[in-house]
Amino acid sequence: MVTEAAAAILAGGGGTRLGGARKALLELDGRPFIVRQLEVLRALFAEVFVVADDPAPFAPFDVQVVGDLVPGKGAPGGVYTAVTSASAPWVFCVGCDMPFLEREAIELLAARRGEAAAVTPFRRGRPEPLFAFYSKRCAEPFGRLLRAGEPSLIRLLSHVEVEQVGEAELGGQGSRLLENINTPDDFARLLAARRSEPEGQ
After folding, report:
1. Residue 90 confidence (pLDDT) above 80
2. For residue 194, what pLDDT is reported?
3. Which residue among 78, 93, 112, 131 is least packed, with the fewest CB closer than 10 Å?
4. Residue 178 in contact with residue 128, Cβ under 8 Å?
5. What is the rounded distance in angstroms from the CA atom of residue 133 to the CA atom of residue 5?
């Protein structure tokens, strides 16, 4: 188990770029993304919850759903809500459209927690803020910036000290670990790639 940390799945809004489909409910190998994620996260964290605008779609999964504290702010608002709502001093935030979570990668990030306020993988020189650990120290600056405007997650991170973890350090499935789904084409490519993999992977 990862100590002194909760986990939050950021399930956002209505998936407008996916024609209104809820990303968390997309299926891979016959299982919704959120089921795949909960399986990994519940083995690592004593506290797991979802941040979403509507709890109804998640009723079948027996998971706590927390509404956005600052509505209409997208993923930055979701991270702020997760950090503020978690009972633990740290929270691992992951986008609901990332179906390839790996226990080892999450544990590696957890082990890098220290003096910095956040721990994020870096890919192509940029942080991956939707597969990252945030401490309670992020709550005040993130909340202040959200209420003052429309900051990106990258801008939020620029206001706190960040521990950088290189993508290569994560090992395992490499870049696929950080793959996410934004459009129907992204999902079609994911399914096509999955069909082409050797059975059992």
Report:
1. yes
2. 73
3. 112
4. yes
5. 9
